[in-house]
Design a protein that fits this description.
8-stranded mixed beta sheet, binds beta-D-ribofuranose, binds calcium ion, alpha/beta, two-stranded antiparallel ribbon, Inosine-uridine Nucleoside N-ribohydrolase, Chain A, 12 helices, 19% strand
Amino acid sequence: MARYKVWIDCDPGVDDAAALMLAAKMPEIEVVGISATAGNVELKYTYRNARNLAAYVGLDVPVYKGANAPLIRKPVYAKEVHGKTGLGGEALPMSAAPDMTKPAWDALYEAAVKSQGEIVLIFIGPLTNLALALRKYPDLPQYVSRLILMGGSSSFGNTTSAAEFNIVFDPEAAAVVFESDLTISMLGLDVTMQASLKQDDLEMLARIGGETGRFLKDSLQVSLNWLKTLGLDAVAMHDPCTLLYLVYPAMFKSEMAGVKVETRGELTYGKTVTDLYSDTRFPVQNVDVVLEIDHAEFMKVFAEILGKYKESSHGA
Ligand code: BDR
Ligand code: CA
């Protein structure tokens, strides 16, 4: 079977953790590298979490450290959603892998060149590392098959009324990425909020996923408890949607649209403005905007993949 060569850039993050857990058990995917960025929590935690998660799920690939702050603005983290250190207060065994000193953007570029255009970029945190890579290596897009990112929305926001977290954390970086020649699929809140888990679903994960499933349940519980205080009864699996879209596109519906990132608006700073619902369209429809997921199918596949952890206590 031809496997997708995938680079994952993340900011774990409880749903980033779920994505890494899926990646390790999807035979269609070969993870060639992982990078961490500041986002949900500080870089020192996202980097540590990414390293520990990779080791925990048996992904034997280098994990690189990326940007510790957005390009321009001050970082505003999401600790209320992900806990102080990013995994809902849960701790993992420390990875024994060597510390990587090469910056994420250099490592990503080298991996892309080596892949000769095959690499798929999965970005599930703020886009700072990718913007830095594009600035330093303007020829990067020619070595990349496609970018699938979690971020933005064609309608509502979650961090402000207009903006989604990954984009508003670093809107200037997102603008660089959306203005690049990369082939982009955007999984924003429109679709990822549909990929949600209720309390019963978390219990199910703990039952079917062995020790890993219990870890995931416990870390997601912090998010769900916080969301309950807002009157919501489910936690969205934002980040896992990217990998599922790559391997199971038939589970989703998408539309090409023009997308630009607002970097000046007072109320709309960090919004991904799309021309999906307007009479006047942007000159170019540059992004595959994913809008719907079949929730029943999502639950089935998500449970099937995490169920693979039942046999082994963790990754291997
Ligand atoms: C996105 O922001 C983060 O909190 C999640 O990990 C996800 O990537 C959702 O808005
Ligand atoms: Ca994330």
